Amino acid sequence: MDLIARISILVLLLVTPWPLGSRLPWAATASTGLILFVFGIWLAKHVWQGKRTVWGRSLVPVAAFLGLGIVQATTGHSVYPFGTWLEVGELAGYAAVMALSATLLAQPAWQRRVLGVLCLSVSVVAAFSLIQYFTWNGMLFWSYESPFGGTSPFGPFNNRNYFAGYTAAASGPCVAVALSSATLRWRVACGAGAGVGIGAVAVSMSRAGILAMAVCVVVAAGLSTQRSTMRRSSRRTSTRTAVVVLVILGVAATAVLAAGVGPPLLDRFQALATPDFDRSAIGRLAIWSDTLEMIKARPLVGFGLDTFVWAHLRFRTNGDGFPQHAHSEYLETLAEAGAIGGALAVWFLIAVSIQGFQAVRTPSRSLRVALVRGALASWAAILVLSLIDFPTVIPATNYVLAVLAGTILGSGSDSVHE
User: Fold this and answer.
1) Which member of 127, 296, 337, 338 has the greatest number of CB atoms within 10 A?
2) Other Cβ atoms within 10 Å of 363 Cβ, number
3) pLDDT at 232
4) How remote is the C-alpha of 357 from its chain's centroid?
């Protein structure tokens, strides 16, 4: 059963990006159902055999958050109970992936497989996105109309910000391992994958995505400077690092130059000072103002998980459209889950961060520590992106984050040997 659970996680990482990041209802339902079914059987067998878990108390706030959603859906605190139940199911799927990853993917052999799958996935998705960009005919996969009113689709995603969020999440381990003391083969492979991802995000011209990718690279590079370096091998390590950095920059620059998006990309950032951006910012600020009023109306438990689009109707002041999200994960969490849900989310983030920084505190040449550095970098990128966007609406991104959080939680497992 352990092998089936491990393979299921790897399959999710490989498959979920393609059906629009599994945002399509059938894809989200299938992925959630699969992992909950596998987790249920695995947990029953695990408990029956009297084995211990390694995730400890770090998943307590996750369980409590799920409990909050159930209470909302069953006691009338949710304005759309069915939507809240669906959200609880999806969150349970992410929690299951996190728990399985912490327990089953801690061994070095499986950590190498996780890294290989992430590197392969981000490389293939980014390469496909670039090919589709160069041959764009106005349709996803050259044959599929963008659903959900998607604007600026890119790759297999109906929005370039979704693509950028997924790529930033999946690229963290690639960047960290590329800058680590791993073998040159691993470093070049991961560097090439990260380079394709960085180049594709630049070509997508997602300003928020470029910011998130920059945070990912900076955090991964900063944490990697703590790695162990022996004096007699420092020159060789520095040379390898220089080679890998050149590979990353070369691949990314090739993608940008081939697409010819240099000047348009500069225009995108210069547009931040134009009246057009002012109008866009005013619309977003109006949504944030409405969301603050929602939070004031139900400060403790909110309006129910995944109910923003319905609850917002009562507070909408801008008559243009019906926003499905608050364009800020933090405000939306407080509006949907209240101060209790917000506190549980902060508790989880702090617990995972503490364990992650404890794992990387001691300089080490191990792949495990490099993966933890990459996981922290990916989470940092998504947390920054969440200030002004909603990247976690995409299940594919969430599964990557869940696996990486599990990697952090399992970093102290006794089954891991340096």
Assistant:
1) 337
2) 12
3) 43
4) 19
